[in-house]
Write a structure and sequence with these properties.
103 residues; mainly alpha; 3 strands; 10% strand
Length: 103
């Protein structure tokens, strides 16, 4: 993790903590009944934001799993040519080493 990423994470965590502290103080000042109403509205917006993020993530995952080059049900093929002491890491599909030796 770079220094700028670490600073950004600390800044976000501090901002979140201060926002929670401020909201807690505000809710304590306005009274229990009004705080209940405000909390319900805030919870609604947080739930809607979470739903939107989960739908967006599901759509992106589904799109990423579908290869754009695969049309018509054609199997995925990969090949590699290299010299001595080489490593190949593969997650799926066919693999050819050298002169079409299949593993």
């Amino acid at each position: 993790m770079t220094r700028s990423q670490r600073i950004a994470i600390w800044a976000l965590a501090t901002s979140f903590g201060l926002a929670c502290l401020g909201l807690g103080i505000y809710l304590a000042k306005i009274g229990l009944e009004k705080a209940n109403q405000v909390s319900g509205i805030v919870g609604l917006f947080v739930a809607l934001a979470g739903l939107a993020i989960s739908v967006w993530g599901a759509i992106n995952t589904r799109t990423a799993m579908q290869s754009p080059n695969r049309s018509g049900g054609e199997p995925l093929r990969q090949s590699q040519r290299s010299g001595d002491n080489s490593k190949n890491i593969q997650a799926g599909g066919d693999i050819n080493f050298g002169d079409s030796n299949r593993f």
